[in-house]
Write a structure and sequence with these properties.
The protein is mainly alpha-helical. The chain is built from eleven helices and no strands. It starts with a helix and ends with a helix.
C-alpha cells in the first residue's frame, strides 16, 4: 500500500528539513559574515585540532548512547531545553576561542545527542536497540543540501548509503559484544565515516566563533544554530525511518524523490 495523505505530508515536511541550506549557509545568514572569513582567521593547526576533538567527541557520545540512553514513554522532544544548554557551552567557546573547543565540543555533542534521542523516541524509535542508538549518531553526518545543489540524491540518501554498511556492522558487533572492545574495526569504521562529515560542521562552527566581533554572545548564538540544525536533521531523519518501517525503504525513497 502507498502512503496515506498524512504520511505524504510528513514525508514532504521531512524533505523540507533534510534539504534545507547547509550549516555554513545558516550561520552566514545569521551573522552576516561569510564563513570563509572565519576560516581565514583560524590559527595554523586548527584543522588537526578539530579532527582530534571531533573524533573524541563522537567517542564520548557513543559511550553515552550505549550506557545511558534508555526507553521512555513516547513524548514531544525537549528541543528548547537542549538549545539553552548548548548555547551556554557556546558562550564559553565564544569567549575563549578555539582553545575551548576540546572542552566545549564533547559536552555540546552529548547534549545534542540527548536531544536527537528525544526526537527519535517521539517518532517511535526503540532507543535501547544498538541500531537505533547508532542512527542517532548518524544524524551528525547529515548536513543538509547547499543552495544550488541539483542532484536529487546529493544529500540525504547519499549519506545514508555511505553509512549503511558500517552502521549495520557496528550495530551487530555492539549487540554481540557491548562495550567490551569499543575500538573494534566495525565500530571504528562507523565513527570514522560519521566523523568525516561532522568534522566539516565543527570546522564551520569554529570558524564562525573565530570572528572577533562575535565574542561570548556570538558563541552562544552560533551554538544555538548548531543544535537547531541537527535537531532539524534528526526530525527529518526519524520521520523517514518511521515511514520506512511502515512501507519499506524503496517505496518511501521513490515518493521522496518524486516530491517537488
Amino acid at each position: 500500500m502507498g502512503l496515506a495523505k498524512a504520511e505524504t505530508d510528513d514525508l514532504r515536511y521531512a524533505k523540507t528539513l533534510l534539504e534545507n541550506p547547509s550549516l555554513a549557509i545558516k550561520i552566514t545568514d545569521l551573522i552576516g559574515v561569510p564563513i570563509e572569513t572565519g576560516l581565514a582567521l583560524l590559527p595554523k593547526g586548527a584543522h588537526r585540532l578539530v579532527n582530534r576533538v571531533t573524533k573524541s567527541s563522537l567517542e564520548t557520545a557513543l559511550r553515552f548512547a550505549l550506557t545511558t540512553m534508555r526507553n521512555r514513554p513516547r513524548a514531544a522532544a525537549s528541543n528548547r531545553v537542549h538549545k539553552f544548554a548548548v548555547a551556554a557551552t557556546g558562550a564559553s567557546g565564544g569567549a575563549l576561542g578555539l582553545a575551548a573547543l576540546a572542552v566545549e565540543l564533547p559536552v555540546s555533542t552529548v547534549i545534542m545527542l540527548r536531544s536527537i534521542a528525544d526526537v527519535a523516541r517521539s517518532e517511535g524509535e526503540i532507543i535501547k536497540a544498538p541500531e537505533t542508538k547508532l542512527a542517532c549518531l548518524e544524524v551528525f553526518a547529515l548536513g543538509g543540501r547547499a543552495r544550488g545543489d541539483d542532484a536529487a540524491e546529493s544529500g540525504y540518501f547519499a549519506v545514508r548509503a555511505t553509512l549503511a554498511k558500517s552502521l549495520s556492522q557496528a550495530a551487530h558487533y555492539i549487540a554481540e559484544n557491548g562495550l567490551a572492545r569499543q575500538a573494534a574495526p566495525a565500530v571504528a569504521r562507523f565513527l570514522a565515516r560519521v566523523g568525516a562529515q561532522f568534522e566539516l560542521s565543527v570546522l564551520e562552527k569554529a570558524a564562525a566563533q573565530a570572528i572577533p566581533v562575535l565574542g561570548a554572545a556570538g558563541g552562544a548564538i552560533v551554538n544555538t544554530v548548531f543544535i537547531d540544525h541537527f535537531q532539524s536533521m534528526a526530525r527529518g531523519h526519524f520521520i523517514m525511518r518511521r515511514l520506512e518501517r511502515a512501507h519499506g525503504l524503496e517505496l518511501v525513497k521513490e515518493d521522496y524523490l518524486r516530491l517537488s
